[in-house]
Structure formats: structure tokens, C-alpha cells
Amino acid sequence: MLTVGVLVRCRVLQPRARDVLSRWASPVLPLTCTTESRVRPASGVGGASGAGGWYGSLSDSAPVHLCENFLVSAHQVSGLPWWLSIAMATVSIRTCITLPLAAYQLIIIAKVEALQAEISELAKRLRYEVSVRGRERGWTDKQSRVQFQKNLRRLVSQLYVRDNCHPFKASLLVWVQLPLWVGLSLALRNLSLDRPALHDELAAGGALWFPDLTVPDSTWVLPVCLGLTNLLILEVFSLQRVEASRFQRLVLNGFRGFSVLMIPIAASVPSSMALYWFCSSLVGFSHNLLLRSPTVRRTAGLPAPRSETPYRDLLSAFISKYWR
Is the separation of the CB atoms in 47 and 54 below 8 Å? Predict the structure, then answer.
């Protein structure tokens, strides 16, 4: 603020006073000019550092650049147009990385569910032992509950270690898929907007109603397809739970709202990002259906499904919920 004030005052001073000021201020003027030239680009939104802060650091991080190199290499090796190259890269990544993790998640969930009967029986015996010990030592009801919960957590943890099925392992898919999704999204954003050498290729690399991958989809077809696919995934997931708790219903409604919110977001980003999001959701939905197949589960050595006709049961549940 002081530097700007001095510069403004120098312009409005009378010539004589300006000469007097220059006799003693001239040694610091070069420093003032240098400081102004260094600070100005950082405050400009459109400059190289315009996307400063955490977003700029994230979009310029090594994992994002690695995703950029992967996409460019996939396009160069395949020789496909950019829209098809993005789709094939999405299918490859989801199939090679997230599909095995989804299968592993099914194994962990099956083991945890198989332990529920043992945990229930263990809880009954533990409650009886705590009540007997509480009467001997004069514990209050609160102290008995604390002792029961403490010992039950310890015993359940031992069961998880015994069967190597800690529930946290079931969330491994999310911890891998989310950073991967963010990295590829930012990589496509950088390729579409910040790489002049590839701008022309991406501008002509679209198809059908989105010929330019560097601009948003003005028809909103990709964003709407993305939103509908995400909603379909959520509805299929909700049909798996016969009686959902209040918290689960709140979480499900929150994801429904987020799926709707993704439609205007996808309509405001380059079409390359919207295409990737739609392909990723579509592949995820197809993998979800694939892992329901009894034949696929037996071939991959996964836990047997609850029904031998999962697709027919899913269709019946969907019809009974929305058409009756």
C-alpha cells in the first residue's frame, strides 16, 4: 500500500516538488519498481499463477502430470481420435485397477457378513459375563456398558485379524478410485486448456454433438447422461438393501443430490472432462452388473451370490419400486 501511495503521489506533485523528492527517493525507486513487477502477476487471476493455492498446486502436481503423460501416450500409441482414446483409456484403467479392487471388496464384505453370527453369539456371552462381574464388583449400569463395549471391540478386532477382513479394507476401492478420478480429470483439464501444442488436436478430436473437446458441451447431452447414469447406479445400490437405516437413507439422498449437481458442473467444464466422467460412470455401472453374475463369481473364485438370478431379481425389484 505504501509503494502504491508513493507512486500515485509522484504523478500529482508539482514539478519542483517532484525534483526535490527525486533527490532523496531516487535510490529506492528501482527497488519499488522491482517489487511492483513481482507482485502484480501473483494477484492476477489470468496469469500463470492465477490458479494459485491448493488448486494450482494440485493441478501442477506430479501425479497429475503422470496422468497427462499416460493420456498422451495412449493417444499416440493407439492412433485413435481423442474422444475414443479417452474412452479406451478409461475402460483400461477401470478394468485393470478398480475392477480387481471391487472384487476384493466383495471378498472382504462376505467375510465380515459371515462373522456377524459369531459376533452376535459372542456378544450374548460377553453381556452375561459382564453382568455377573458387575454384580460382584458393584458396577453401575454405565460402568457395565463401558466394560461391555470395550471388551466387545477388542474381541471383534481379534476376529477381524483372525479372518483378515478388517472393514477398512472394504473402503480401499474408494481410496484408490477417488484420487485416480481427480488426477485424470485435472489432467484432461490441463491438456484441454493449458497445453497449446495439443489444443488444436483436442479441438478437432471430438465426435457427434461434441466435436470440440476443449469447450463445454453446449447441448448438455453428456452432462445429462452423466447425471442419469450416476442416479441409476445409486438406485441399483439402494435396491440391494431391503431395510435401510435412517442414516443410510440420508447418505443416499445426499449422493442423489450430488449426482444432480454434477449435471451443471459437467456442463461448465471442457467436453473432454465430461466425456471421461460419463465413461467412468458407465464402466463402473457395467462392472457392478458384471460382478453380480454367478458365472463370473464362480470363475473368479468370489463369494457365491445370494441368488442365481440376480438380474431378474434386480429388474423385479426395480419394477415393483417404481411402477407399482
Answer: no
Of the chain, the end-to-end C-alpha distance in Å amounts to 69
Residues 9, 135: Cα–Cα separation, whole Å = 86
Residue type, 136: E
Contacts of 317 (CB under 8 A, 6+ apart): 239
CA distance 289 to 310: 9
Cell numbers found for residue 91: 475402460
Please list the alpha-helical segments (H only) found in the chain.
Answer: 2-12, 15-25, 29-43, 53-59, 62-78, 82-93, 99-137, 141-163, 172-193, 196-203, 221-239, 246-266, 271-290, 294-300, 310-322
Task: Find cell 463369481 and name the residue.
Answer: 297
DSSP 287-316: HHHHTT-HHHHHHHTPPPPS-S-HHHHHHH
pLDDT in tens, 1-26: 434 443 334 333 344 334 433 433 33
> How far is residue 270's CA from residue 199's CA, in Å, rounded to a whole number?
12
Whole-angstrom distance, CA of residue 27 vs CA of residue 266: 54
pLDDT at 280: 94
Which amino acid, one-letter code, is at 100? P
Q: CA 294, CA 300: separation in Å to the nearest integer?
A: 10
**Reported pTM:** 0.75
CA 294 to the chain's CA centroid: 29
Place of cell 460402568: 143
303: cell is 463369494
Number of neighbouring beta carbons within 10 Å of residue 183: 21
Rg of the chain, C-alpha, whole Å: 30
Q: CB neighbours (10 Å) of residue 157?
A: 11
